[in-house]
Design brief:
The structure holds 3 protein chains of 3 kinds.
Chain A lengths: L1 H11 L2 H33 L13 H28 L2 H33 L7 H22 L3 H32 L15 H33 L4 H7 L5
Chain B lengths: L11 E10 L2 E11 L3 E6 L6 H9 L6 E6 L2 E2 H4 L1 H4 L2 E4 L11 H11 L8 H7 L15 H13 L5 E5 L7 H16 L3 E5 L10 E6 L3
Parallel strand pairs in B: 3-8, 3-9, 6-7, 7-8
Antiparallel strand pairs in B: 1-2, 1-4, 4-5
Helix pairs in contact in B: 5-6
Chain C lengths: L5 H18 L5 H18 L3 H24 L4 H6 L1 H6 L5 H16 L1 H13 L4 H29 L5 H28 L5 H30 L1
The chains are: A mainly alpha, B alpha/beta, C mainly alpha.
Chain lengths: 251, 214, 227
């Protein structure tokens, strides 16, 4: 019985089936994403009032905070997909895992850049060793490690398994690293308090923030499907169904 | 392993093995089984997957699809228990050049299930390395180092030998010696799976051949 | 005769690795020299103001220790990979994680322990106050095994790669950050005369966690690298 279910799931996860279904699903994610982003940005940039402490420059949090949340979320998804691919040897899980890595790295980079842009008007410096920014920086290195290791191993099935272990080790270490950096930051405050205080959250600020967070999740879902389709095409490039996509059958 | 099916199951069997390397399907739906006293000889051109199949048989390499069973149980579930029964000789000898033959074989004994019948000196004698126990392996010739690797097969209780080009670097005397060892091993109920360019002559054994280029 | 007990197999592999290290003992000194050299570079780069050197001393020693550990990691599995003995470990009748633990212990004895022994010299070079020396040695004793254990996972993932050394740093250094933070801070705090039980406990906890989890991850990584 169990083997039947597993075989069924294996069939559902067949690359060809996934390629078709994912192609149809992408717009269902990207269009709502665009709408939510418009709504969130309108709410955050136009409707929400300026912060009494930070003025207009706080508005970058509508990009910065969702990016930081996504950078962590995507890593966890990547690790989970990696483990599923490793334990049950499901190719689709492997594909989702490696497709997520560049997206997560981009979110991390975005969080770092927006964090830096936020810091400049406040502290006059392009970079401060704030706890969150430092954690994001280390997270970026963890992502880059996954991406480098995958590209360095030629056999992509072996590469997917190696990267799954790496992501799993990373996921276990992220709380430890985060805690250590938080602790380190509280010690080395120095004369100026270089901490990104989130402005006290008024509803008019909270709602756009949540809209942006949801929009980013939809963005991730859509883009990971697009990347996964590309990855599937590359992995299956010698199979018949891919060949027939490239060279349409003559009638 | 107490297994009520053990009597009916072949000692070692492979079912529907599939192997993909560098995007090429080397073989698929490959099945065979081995019983004590039988030898499996893999033939095929270079690159046809002989080494990959041997590595799949001993469990180092995962097949794309298919099962590998020892007395009916998956070798991956058995793990170290399966490993007790096998000895693998790959392309590389597996000898530490900075250790002496004695130390190398001692380590091999410790890693597996040490043989009661054959001790280290006896093993070295059987491969023609008697007197070389304490010479650094680095100072042995390539053929002697290969013979040391063969000796490793003798010092444990492993009865399933998995060998990749065992006759590499051996001279005529060495080849005869090793063929004799195989004959004895198979006659005593051992099993073997091997690839070789050399035309192996196993006198009494039941030899199955699989040609991967077909 | 049956298989050796687990502890005997562990001891056999440990002795084998120590023997091998001893027979190539000229190479053992490299990470150690690196440790001393890197530490000595900092005053040259920062200036000879002894207060400044004292302020950065603990951090410098620990960063140098990290780099020396990183440099020495490659030797953990490379030789065995190249001559084919690593494959034999994977086919052993004993659990691979125990064999890994033996190799990591041997590696630490050969590369980590010397760092601890030479630390007092570095303490003198960087004008570390006497109270801090004891804590420095404790942090190194707890920390260097963690570096070997975590490093083992990274080496296992990259052992088959041609230019694995470059990727190894990228994989392993982020994981070393917590050790660096707590160890260097412990030494700084001790230099100020403040108790450091918190930091030391954290390091001990990290060591316990690494001892249990790292060998399993390393064994899994080796299996993947060799397939």
């Amino acid at each position: 019985m169990w083997t039947l279910i597993v075989r069924f799931l294996h069939q559902m996860a067949s690359p060809q089936y996934f390629y078709r279904i994912a192609g149809r699903l992408v717009p269902w994610f990207m269009v709502p994403c665009a709408l939510l982003m418009l709504a969130g940005l309108y709410g955050g940039l136009i409707l929400a009032p300026p912060d009494y402490q930070q003025g207009e420059s706080y508005r970058i949090i509508f990009i910065h905070v969702p990016s930081a949340w996504m950078s962590l979320f995507v890593y966890v998804v990547m690790a989970a997909a990696g483990v599923i691919g490793l334990v049950w040897r499901i190719k689709l899980a492997e594909v989702v895992a490696i497709s997520s890595a560049p997206i997560g790295a981009s979110f991390t980079f975005l969080a770092l850049v927006t964090g830096s842009l936020w810091g400049k008007p406040m502290w006059g410096a392009w970079w401060v060793w704030d706890a969150r920014l430092t954690s994001e920086l280390i997270l970026l290195f963890l992502y880059l490690g996954v991406i480098s290791l995958y590209s360095a191993i030629e056999d992509k099935r072996v590469a997917a398994r190696a990267v799954a272990i790496l992501a799993l080790v990373g996921v276990v270490n992220i709380p430890i690293i985060h805690y250590s950096v938080e602790w380190w930051n509280t010690l080395h405050q120095g004369a100026t308090i270089a901490k990104f205080d989130k402005p006290s959250m008024h509803t008019s600020m909270l709602i756009p923030l949540l809209l942006m967070a949801l929009a980013f999740k939809l963005f991730y879902a859509g883009v990971v499907l697009m990347r996964a389709r590309c990855e599937v095409l590359e992995r299956e490039r010698n199979s018949r169904w891919v060949q027939s996509l490239v060279e349409p059958q003559t009638r | 392993m107490a297994n009520s099916n053990a009597q009916n199951e072949p000692r070692f069997s492979a079912r529907r093995l599939e192997c993909i390397r560098d995007d090429r399907r080397l073989f698929s739906d490959l099945s065979f089984s081995l019983e004590p006293g039988q030898a499996l000889v893999l033939e095929g051109q270079n690159g046809s997957g002989k080494t990959s199949l041997l590595r799949i048989i001993c469990g180092i390499r995962l097949p794309e699809d298919g099962e590998l069973l020892w007395e009916g149980e998956s070798i991956f579930k058995l793990g170290p228990e399966f490993h007790q029964h096998i000895a693998y000789l790959g392309h590389k000898d597996g000898n530490k050049l900075d250790l002496t033959p004695f130390e190398n074989l001692n380590m091999a004994r410790g890693l597996g299930k040490a043989s009661e019948a054959v001790d280290i000196e006896a093993a070295l004698e059987r491969v023609g390395l008697y007197g070389f126990e304490d010479i650094p392996t680095r100072n042995l010739s390539a053929g002697q180092q290969r013979r040391l690797a063969i000796a490793r097969l003798l010092v444990t209780e492993a009865n399933f030998w998995i060998l990749d080009e065992p006759f590499t670097s051996l001279d005529r005397q060495g080849i005869e010696t090793v063929e004799g060892l195989f004959d004895t091993h198979l006659a005593n109920g051992g099993m073997a799976a091997l690839t070789t360019h050399h035309r192996i002559d196993l006198a009494r054994a039941e030899v199955h051949r699989i040609n991967l280029s077909a | 005769m049956s298989t050796l007990s687990l502890s005997s197999a562990f001891g056999l592999l440990l002795r084998r690795d120590l023997t091998l290290a001893y027979r190539r003992r000229a190479e053992l000194v490299n990470p150690l020299l690196f440790f001393v050299l890197v530490t000595s570079l900092f005053p040259l780069g920062i200036g000879s103001d002894s207060r400044l050197i004292q302020a950065v001393g603990p951090g410098v020693i620990w960063v140098a220790a990290l780099l020396a550990a990183l440099l020495s990691l490659d030797s953990m599995f490379r030789s065995d990979f190249e001559d084919g003995s690593l494959e034999q470990f994977m086919l052993s009748a004993h659990p691979v994680s125990i064999l890994v633990l033996a190799k990591v212990l041997a590696h630490w004895l050969v590369t980590g322990l010397p760092l601890i022994l030479v630390a007092p010299l570095l303490a003198v070079l960087l004008s570390l106050p006497g109270e801090a020396l004891g804590v420095l040695l404790i942090t190194l004793t707890l920390g260097t095994p963690i570096l070997s254990l975590i490093g083992g996972v990274g080496v296992a993932l990259t052992v088959g790669l041609r230019r694995g050394g470059v990727i190894l740093s990228l994989l392993v250094l982020p994981l070393y950050v917590p050790v660096l933070i707590f160890a260097s801070n412990a030494v700084e705090t001790a230099a100020a005369g403040i108790p450091t039980t918190g930091q030391i406990s954290f390091l001990a906890a990290l060591l316990a966690l690494s001892l249990t989890l790292a060998p399993l991850a390393t064994a899994a990584s080796l299996r993947i690298s060799l397939s």
